């Protein structure tokens, strides 16, 4: 005898099967998404650990080499103070992190997995009046997670990027191309010698976008202050604002005129009548004639100029910035310029601080060799 099932019963069973299918699909998607997230996190952890291992290795190598010689760039083929080239050519950097610079294919750089580069320099600092070498390091364009993990140090100088770190800080820098010229940005936080990193302050400094990490390694003892290469405004954290980050990087009071060259500066820091920045970059066929205090190196295609170079910020134009640079500090300007920046010349000293007046804005791609008639 044939049994006939009601249509409603059949429909109810189909509905249950459909719900189960949807649930299976949701579970499968959750597993797939979870696997992707886990893979991404694992890959990011691997990248961070790879960079940390590279920095620990290369910093130890450079510290050992610098102890043996007074200058890591003693060989004539290296630019003075350039420890990046030394580290790469000596084989201290793993091959998968060596790349060519953007806009300068003849220049080798240390490229991190997130696209930014690592710049290493030998810098000068003083301890009890004696000049001593230190190693300066800049990691450009770190994502927030890497900034927080690599930006921590202990009071004794240990960190994920090596030992003997006497200062480790975070900058906000608008340069997202290869920062070959060590153009500094706004200091957001720094932990100095004898200080543990404040994790809350570090998190606040790292959030909101890509950041630059800067570190200084002592070679033969902790110096009294930061080296001259560290040319951000008010870097010695005297309590003018939270987290050792100055409220303003310019002297809006304009107590001294700019150093544009001629005449007395006006009170707004706009400078005198003359213009020591030289001619333009060659409009209508005019040759570029640099100022007389600029030195041209044709072999390296760069000018050596007096003063400091900071990343461009409109509020700095016509104003004075504060630094720890020596009054005789010089800057190397590549031709053509690889980044947009502002140039400042020495104005005066006050204690350990030096004051610098704005003299020239440089756009990326600007600057050409001096003309034949200059």
UniProtKB/TrEMBL annotation:
Stretches the record annotates as Disordered: 225-289
Keywords noted in UniProt: Membrane, Transmembrane, Transmembrane helix
Stretches with biased composition (Gly residues): 254-285
Composition bias, Low complexity: 241-253
Taxonomic path: unclassified sequences, metagenomes, ecological metagenomes
UniProt keyword Transmembrane helix present: yes
Segments crossing the lipid bilayer: 21-39
Protein name: Uncharacterized protein
């Amino acid at each position: 005898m044939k049994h006939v099932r009601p249509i409603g019963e059949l429909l109810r069973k189909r509905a249950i099967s459909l719900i189960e299918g949807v649930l299976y699909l949701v579970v499968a998607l959750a597993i797939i998404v979870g696997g992707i997230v886990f893979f991404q996190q694992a890959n990011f952890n691997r990248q961070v650990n790879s960079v940390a291992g590279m920095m620990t290795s290369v910093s130890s190598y450079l510290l050992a080499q610098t102890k043996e010689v007074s200058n890591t760039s003693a060989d004539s083929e290296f630019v003075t103070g350039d420890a990046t080239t030394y580290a790469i050519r000596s084989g201290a950097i793993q091959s998968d992190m060596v790349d060519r610079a953007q806009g300068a294919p003849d220049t080798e750089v240390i490229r991190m997995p997130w696209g930014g580069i690592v710049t290493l320099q030998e810098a000068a600092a003083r301890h009890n009046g004696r000049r001593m070498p230190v190693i300066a390091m800049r990691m450009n364009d770190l994502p927030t997670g890497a900034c927080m993990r690599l930006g921590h140090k202990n009071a004794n100088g240990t960190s994920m990027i090596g030992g003997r770190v006497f200062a480790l800080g975070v900058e906000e820098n608008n340069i997202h191309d290869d920062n070959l010229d060590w153009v500094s940005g706004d200091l957001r936080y720094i932990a100095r010698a004898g200080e543990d990193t404040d994790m809350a302050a570090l998190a606040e400094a790292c959030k909101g976008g890509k950041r630059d990490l800067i570190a200084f390694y002592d070679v033969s003892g902790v110096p009294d202050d930061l080296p001259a290469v560290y040319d951000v405004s008010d870097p010695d954290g005297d309590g003018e604002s939270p987290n050792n980050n100055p409220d303003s990087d310019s002297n809006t009071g304009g107590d001294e005129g700019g150093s544009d060259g001629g005449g007395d500066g006006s009170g707004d820091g706009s400078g005198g009548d003359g213009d020591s920045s030289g001619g333009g970059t060659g409009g209508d066929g005019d040759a570029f004639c640099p100022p007389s205090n600029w030195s041209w190196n044709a072999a390296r295609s760069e000018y050596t100029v007096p003063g400091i170079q900071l990343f461009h910020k409109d509020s700095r134009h016509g104003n004075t910035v504060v630094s720890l640079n020596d009054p005789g500090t010089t800057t190397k300007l590549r031709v053509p310029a690889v980044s947009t920046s502002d140039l400042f010349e020495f104005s005066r000293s006050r204690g350990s601080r030096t004051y610098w007046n704005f003299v020239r804005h440089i756009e990326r791609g600007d600057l050409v060799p001096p003309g034949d008639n200059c």
